[in-house]
Task: inverse folding
């Protein structure tokens, strides 16, 4: 679980430093960065955005990089830095790692959005994919 989260230059989040608890509620006006905060956590966990696949689209205007850092409740640290040219730097406990799966294992996430409900109405392939992901985590 995330204990501390720092975000730099991701969409409208220039510099964010949050201390999280067991249960957190995110509230704010439209356009205040609620979804961008969730996007940052997903980016750290999965190495990609759920909103756009090109980093230059979510890195803040006139910036070269976006960075997300988290300290987990077991004192381990995770970090990702995305550059506009899609170069990625990943770190686990201040050591560079070369596979996103290492961070994903430390911080598994599951995106639930309106399209997720399509699983109930469509064939079984998407449900099997979800179960595969849940077993992985």
Result:
């Amino acid at each position: 679980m995330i204990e501390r989260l720092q975000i730099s230059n991701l969409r409208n989040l220039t510099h964010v430093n949050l201390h999280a608890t067991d249960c957190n509620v995110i509230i704010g006006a439209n356009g205040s960065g609620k979804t961008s905060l969730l996007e940052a956590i997903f980016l750290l966990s999965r190495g990609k955005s759920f909103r756009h696949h090109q980093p230059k689209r979510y890195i803040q205007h006139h910036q070269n990089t976006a960075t997300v850092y988290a300290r987990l409740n077991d004192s381990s640290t995770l970090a990702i830095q995305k550059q506009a040219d899609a170069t990625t730097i990943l770190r686990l406990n201040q050591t560079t790692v070369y596979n996103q799966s290492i961070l994903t294992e430390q911080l598994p996430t599951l995106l639930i959005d309106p399209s997720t409900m399509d699983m109930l109405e469509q064939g079984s392939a998407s449900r099997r994919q979800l179960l595969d992901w849940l077993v992985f985590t």
